[in-house]
Amino acid sequence: MGTEEKLSGRKNIVFCILSIILLCILLFPLYWVVVTSLKTEKEIFQIPPTFWPHILNLKSYMAQLEVGDFNMFQSFGNSLIIAVGSMLISIVLAVPASYGIAKYHFKGKRFIILCFLVTQMLPVSVLLTPLFIMFRNMHLYNTYPAAILADATIGIPFSILILKNYFGSIPGELEEAAYIDGCTRFSAFIRVLIPIAKPGVVVCGIFSFLYAWGDLAYGMTFILDQEKRPITAGIFNFMGQYGTKWSYLTAFAVVTIIPVALIFIFMQKYIISGMTSGAVKG
Question: In whole angstroms, what is the distance from residue 184 CA to residue 235 CA?
Fold first, then answer.
């Protein structure tokens, strides 16, 4: 018994060391982006490279706080509007749709699920042209709703496929007990089923938000005005034909990463429980 515990302890030490090494490798690009945003342009191209800024340079952040096409706060707000709008549309439409697919039996059910799966396989470039024609005819081109609806086309199928398993795994007896207590089908859905599926709803909301937050293709295609474009478009525009302003680009990237990092730090409990439950249920 003592030998087994000793071997187990050695294995734990080895696994901990390997985990730390792997973590350092995965986080190094993030560290390099932050450090680069604090360097001067001259130090960025210095050989051999420096692993920390010798001269702290905050001009790349301060310059972007000024009023202009690439104002950091304005771009941040644009991305927030698009991401939150896409997330709300995805959740509002996906929750009842996934409940209907999970609880009702009707002709063409498997075909509908297959269509949702197929939409996840289509590249963005295939959808750009038909969406452009639709938004132009609806007079939504160059507006926030165009980018919001375009990003929702990815969030809705993903959310339905995840939440379908949650609602399908809920015992029918719970819903019947709610009917006995005087609930209608709608009130039972709101008061009983949605709270049970809360981890899955949170996960779908998070991933819908993150996809819309990191989107570049839809934001660049459906929004022409620089002051309306998301923060990812601001990063892209720092890459010019004759050079790249790396300090400005990495400063924009750091600001873009902040919401993503905060979401994973404070919502990791829901993300882990939601993804693991969705993988084994149904």
Answer: 50
HEC assignment per residue over 49-118: CCCCCCCCCCHHHHHHHCCCCCCHHHHHHHHHHHHHHHHHHHHHHHHHHHHHHHHCCCCCHHHHHHHHHH
Most confidently predicted of 8-17, 74-83, 170-179: 74-83
Cα 20 to the chain's mean position, in Å? 26
Q: In which residue are the tokens 């923060």 written?
A: 231
20: tokens are 């730390």
Contact (Cβ atoms closer than 8 angstroms) between residue 98 and residue 159: yes
Cα-based distances in Å from 17 to 12, 65, 72, 111, 226: 9, 42, 39, 48, 47
How much is the pTM?
Answer: 0.79
What tokens appear for 190 in the block?
A: 């709101």
Q: Are 170 and 196 in contact (CB under 8 A)?
A: yes
Measured distance CA(136)–CA(146) in Å, rounded? 9
